[in-house]
Structure formats: structure tokens, C-alpha cells
Specification:
By secondary structure, the protein is mainly α. The chain is built from eight helices and no strands. The longest helix has about 40 residues. The protein is elongated and about 70 Å long.
Length: about 270
């Protein structure tokens, strides 16, 4: 219940923040803080139960199914956002620029990245794939490799190698987020590309920002896993905590490849 309330508080605060409400940042921050506290105690209890040997094969299976369905729900989230992007580009743009609507909006061009048929959006430049998005693609693909190496090392019982390659994965994720923050600053200050820049701006920041949030959450998960590895948790046969975080990270990698092609190249 507390987790649900904190999530609703976070979303309400974020909505107010985006729409310029003065209370938005404070409410959003309070919601995030409450959610982090809930997660700390929740995962702490789960880790304690796991290390004390209370989990049976049935509970392990339930965790695997739960993580699978959670990732599936995330697939649906991104599917909706990609669907909105597809509708705007493949349906709305050609429809608004056809001969029938040229009478209403004669100056409207149906190319992607326009300022809308009414011309109420400030002019902006679109974001291309070079250099930061391409660098970030290389970073995430490399992080997938380092995470796989860490997993194999754990299965072989090489704890120090597991910790090293897991740390490399987290570091690559942190560098990715640093580049994305720089990209957003560049978009706002030099390209005049903002969340209010029509359908292009809203879909660009929604897709890339939501993905960036997932990278952040994935890095936090892997950091907890790294801490557990250093504490001597997990064995070569029993390490679903590691596997669940790895599943999530690989999902984030795959989503970015779709973003890189659809958002930055097409």
C-alpha cells in the first residue's frame, strides 16, 4: 500500500513539475524518497530470507515468473510509446498534409520534425544519431557483454572476476547516463528542442527519458547485486538475484537498439 501511494505521489509530482506547478518538484522528490525507503526494506527482507535458506524451489520459480511478467509489462509500456510515435509519423503526418487538408493548412509540410499545422510551436532542430547516440549504443552493447562475462564467472565460482565485470557494467551504465544528460542539455540550449516542441519533442523525450529511467533503475539493481557479491552472497547454482537484474539490463539494451534506429535514424 505504501509503495502504491509513493508511486502515485511521484507521478502526480512529476506531472505538476512538467506543467510548471511550483509544488511539482517537492512532491515528486518526496514520492521518490518514499519509494526508495520502501524498496530498501522490501528487498532487505527478501535478501535476508534468501540467505537464511527459507526459499524453496517453488518460491524460486515464482520469482522467475514474477520477473518475467514484470519485464513483459515494461514491453507493453514501450510498445505504447513506440505506437504513439508510429501513429504520429505514419498516419497523422501524411493525413494532415494531403490535398484535402492543404486547404486548411497550406503551409504545412508532412515531414517528421515539423512545428505542427498551426505553427504554434517554436522552431527547433531535430536530434541526429551522431555522435552521442552512437557512442551510447556502443556503451550499452559493451555493458551487455561485460554483464554476460560476469554471469559466466559467477557460474564458475570466480567471485572476484564477477565483481570486476559487474562493476564495469555499472560504470558503463553511469557513463551512458552522463552522455544522455549532456545530450538533453545540448537539445534544450542549442537545438531549442524541448518537451513542448510538438509531437516530435514529446515523443523524443518520452521515449529516451523513460529509457534513461530504466537504465538508472537497472544500474541501481546491479549495484545492489555487486554489494551482495562482495558480501559473499550467491552461489554458482543459486543466484537468481543476479539473473533477474541481468534479464532487466539486457531488456534495456534491446529497447535502446529500437530507440537508436527509430528515433535517431529514421
Amino acid at each position: 500500500m505504501i509503495a502504491g501511494i509513493s508511486m502515485l505521489t511521484t507521478m502526480a509530482g512529476a506531472s505538476g513539475w512538467v506543467n510548471g506547478a511550483g509544488w511539482g518538484p517537492g512532491v515528486c522528490g518526496a514520492g521518490i524518497l518514499a519509494m526508495l525507503v520502501v524498496l530498501y526494506f522490501w528487498f532487505g527482507d527478501a535478501i535476508g530470507e534468501s540467505e537464511s535458506g527459507k526459499y524453496s524451489a517453488r518460491i524460486d520459480l515464482s520469482y522467475r515468473w514474477s520477473m518475467s511478467w514484470f519485464i513483459f509489462s515494461e514491453v507493453m509500456f514501450f510498445g505504447a510509446f513506440f505506437g504513439a510515435l508510429f501513429y504520429a509519423r505514419a498516419v497523422s503526418m501524411p493525413w494532415l498534409s494531403d490535398l484535402d487538408h492543404k486547404v486548411i493548412w497550406p503551409d504545412f509540410a508532412g515531414h517528421w520534425g515539423n512545428v505542427g499545422p498551426a505553427g504554434t510551436v517554436e522552431g527547433f532542430n531535430t536530434m541526429g544519431p551522431f555522435p552521442i547516440p552512437t557512442i551510447n549504443t556502443a556503451l550499452l552493447l559493451t555493458s551487455g557483454v561485460t554483464l554476460t562475462i560476469a554471469h559466466h564467472a559467477l557460474r564458475l565460482g570466480h567471485r572476484s572476476k564477477t565483481a570486476f565485470w559487474l562493476f564495469c557494467t555499472i560504470l558503463l551504465g553511469a557513463v551512458f547516463m552522463g552522455f544522455q544528460a549532456y545530450e538533453y542539455h545540448h537539445a534544450y540550449t542549442e537545438l531549442n528542442l524541448k518537451l513542448t516542441s510538438g509531437i516530435y519533442g514529446s515523443t523524443f523525450f518520452m521515449l529516451t527519458g523513460f529509457h534513461g529511467f530504466h537504465v538508472t533503475m537497472g544500474a541501481i539493481m546491479l549495484s545492489v547485486v555487486l554489494y551482495r557479491v562482495l558480501r559473499g552472497h550467491f552461489t554458482a547454482e543459486n543466484h537468481f538475484g543476479f539473473e533477474g537484474a541481468a534479464w532487466y539490463w539486457h531488456f534495456v539494451d534491446v529497447v535502446w537498439l529500437g530507440l537508436y534506429v527509430v528515433v535517431y535514424w529514421l
